[in-house]
Every structure is written in structure tokens, then in C-alpha cells.
Specification:
Oligomer: single chain
Strand order of the largest sheet: 11-10-9-12
Largest sheet: 4 strands, mixed
Helix content: 10-25%
Structural class: alpha+beta
Radius of gyration: 18 Å
Order of helices and strands: EEEEHEEHHEEEEEEE
Distance between the termini: 13 Å
Shape: globular
Length: 295
Amino acid sequence: MVWIPPGDLLMGSDHHYPEEAPAHRVAVAGFWIDRSPVTNAQFRRFVKATGHVTLAEQPADPAAYPDALPELLAPASIVFVPPPGPIGTGDPYRWWQYLPGACWRHPEGPGSSIRARDHHPVVHVAHADAAAYAAWAGKQLPREAEWEWAACGGREGCEFPWGDELHPGGRPMANTFQGDFPHHNSRLDGWERTSPVGSFPPNGYGLRDMIGNVWEWTDDWYGSHAATVDNPEGCCRQASIDRTSQHGSLPRKVVKGGSFLCAPSYCRRYRPAARMAQGIDTSTCHMGFRCLVRT
């Protein structure tokens, strides 16, 4: 883990997506945070020690989804499947598939495995799975402000932890999507999906993969930015629900950092200030986490 000193953070941004605004000053206490996202090897040790079964490996409760087709209640998770050619970016359901058998052991669905991916971040973990790991490890999941403060790496006023250019001098600094999203990833950064943690330069605090590779769960319920300025926490569980969203009546948590699927032409959320809402019942092939310890 890495020690992150206390300090003042200009949280959010007024220049990108509306949910990031307004930019506002907050104070964050010091904490220890994992140097990189939790890997497959680390998660395997947790599962072996506890017998934990992830949400993606369990059948869905019919009572919770009364209108669902029976085949959709089988253990499954959400996987990115690139289309064969250009289709535009208006309908994400054309590249996301709910695949039975997809889970942390089988990231692309049945027939795939994590063999030779011990040092890749674990994926297909729902919020409850991340929280269970954190509790087992004697740690916690970060609040949004803590995560953002750590991601900035001690810098302020820059788009990215390394400066204002996504690829300074043509060099990829994080695992994101290059090319024509969603059908063609040129792999300028060397990776089509997840990459081993530490494949790209650390930020100013020595943290790896705070930007790109996988989205990371926080423990804050999703809503507008908290009004408090000292160690702010998210809104309440009930307030995180937006029945007009794709998550329906499910509570949502804040996720941060972007992933290997963030592209300049589609999702510019590979920045510390960026944020997204994720339903707590959802796991995907580009969602992971890291933990912290508060002093």
C-alpha cells in the first residue's frame, strides 16, 4: 500500500460531463491505499480462504426480477463483444452482452480463462464482492473524494495525473481504447482488454492504473456531489436510485477511473474528476476495485 497525505482537493470539473460539476474544494484526511487494483491472483487467494461466490456466479433471485425471462436468471455477467464493423455509438446494447457463464474466472465468457492473467485486475466483481474482499483483507473501499485525491497524484489543474495531453509525445500513459470505437481497437497501448497492473507509469504518489484498465468501485452512493467539505461522503442509498436510468429501481454506487473501453470519441472518463453510476447488482468485464485503510 501507499500512504496518501492529507490535503485539499479541487474535486470534480466544470469542463466535461455535467455529473462532474460543479468543481468544488474539499479537505481529505490521509490514508493508505493499494498501489494497484486487486488482481486475479489476490482475489483467488480470497476465494480459496473464504469460499466466496461472486454475484456473477449465482443465479438471480426471481423475486427481485419478476418480469425476467428464465434464461436471464442463470449465473451471468456483462461482456464487451466488439461488433464486426462500424455501427455508431448510439446504442450500447449492440456491443454489451449478458453472457451466462461469464465471471471473474471466465472474463470473456465460457471457454475463456484467467490463465496467464494472474497480474491482471480481477473483473466481473459486483460491489458486494469488492466489499467482501476488503473486509477479509482488513481494509475498506474508498470514498469518491479519497479515490479522486489519490488519483491526482499530488497535482492540480491538469486533465490527467501526468498533464493535459492524453498521449504526451504519442506515448500512451494508461490502458484505454484507441481506434474506432466500438468495432476497431488499434491497440496503440499494446492491449485490447485488461493489462497487467503496472504496465503503465505510476502517478505522483506511485499508484498504478488509477486511470484506465478497469473502472473501480467506491463505497459512495451515487448522487450529486456531497455538500460537506471535510472528508465528504456520497448521498444515501435511497437517493442514489434513478428509475429513469438503465439501473431502474436499483441503488447505485460511484465508480471511478475509466477503463480499457474509454475512447476519445465515446467516453472521456479516463480522468480523475470523471465519475459514473453503477448499479450494485451489476458486474462487467471492465469493473474492478482497490482498497484502502483509514488511520
